[in-house]
Amino acid sequence: MPEKKPAPLLSPKFALALQFANEIHATQARKGEGAPYISHLMGVCSLVLEYGGDESQAIAALLHDAAEDCGGRPMLETVRVMFGDRVAQIVESCTDAFDDPKPAWRPRKEAYLRHLERAPDAVKLVAAADKLHNLTCTLRDIQAGGIAIFSKFSTGFADQCWYYRGCLEALRKEGRQLPILNALQEQVERIEGLRG
């Protein structure tokens, strides 16, 4: 009698989300070293899974920038139809702007930080993974090219330090103290240490 194969840990819906994310972000590149944008989405998804996230959180990680960067609220509704309410709610909570062009950077980020403080743990895990992946890549880019890398961003080094510290503090308020926050804290302290 043949041995029964274990059920897959991720369903075909996850594979669909990966394909969909690749399609909608196909022409986008990362600001730092210019890697295809999907590399960030896969990195965030990997962190979510490694820190105990479920399939809905993993799918939301793949799609966390879909509404913000690929069509606003209509895209969010597409995500809802394709992947369900829970995924769409996480994506919505990880979105700091639905408009194009986006509102001014500082007020937008301040509002997002206030929102993040009260977000449920499922959202906080995806948001923390996003910030951790961004910050890890930023630190790598600084190591390769120095602080001048911030000329590719809409804000400078000091603002980025402020934002990442704010994210860490917002994610630590209320709810569980997620283990991923320890890794995020290490990276926040690393970038702050570059201020000299």
Brief sketch in words of this structure:
The protein is an all-alpha fold. The protein contains ten helices and no strands. The termini are far apart.
Low-confidence stretches: none
How many separate domains? 1
Q: How do the SSEs run, as a string of H and E?
A: HHHHHHHHHH
In percent terms, what proportion of residues is strand?
under 5%
Largest sheet: none
Distance between the termini: 66 Å
CATH class: Mainly Alpha
Q: Give the overall shape, derived from the CA principal axes.
A: globular
Count of discrete alpha- or pi-helical segments spanning 4 or more residues? 10
Give the radius of gyration: 17 Å
Structural class: mainly alpha
Helix share, percent: 55-70%
Description of the structure:
- This protein has a single domain (12-193), classed as Hypothetical protein af1432 (Orthogonal Bundle), CATH 1.10.3210.
- The termini are far apart.
- Helix 3 (55-63) crosses helix 6, helix 7 (105-117) runs parallel beside helix 9 and helix 8 (121-145) runs parallel beside helix 10.
- It has 196 residues and is mainly α.
- 65% of the residues lie in helices and 0% in strands.
Main features:
65% helix, 196 residues, Hypothetical protein af1432, globular, 0% strand, single chain, mainly alpha
Can you lay out the helices and strands and say which pair or pack?
Elements (H helix, E strand, L loop, with lengths): L11 H13 L13 H13 L4 H9 L2 H4 L2 H12 L1 H9 L11 H13 L3 H25 L11 H16 L7 H14 L3
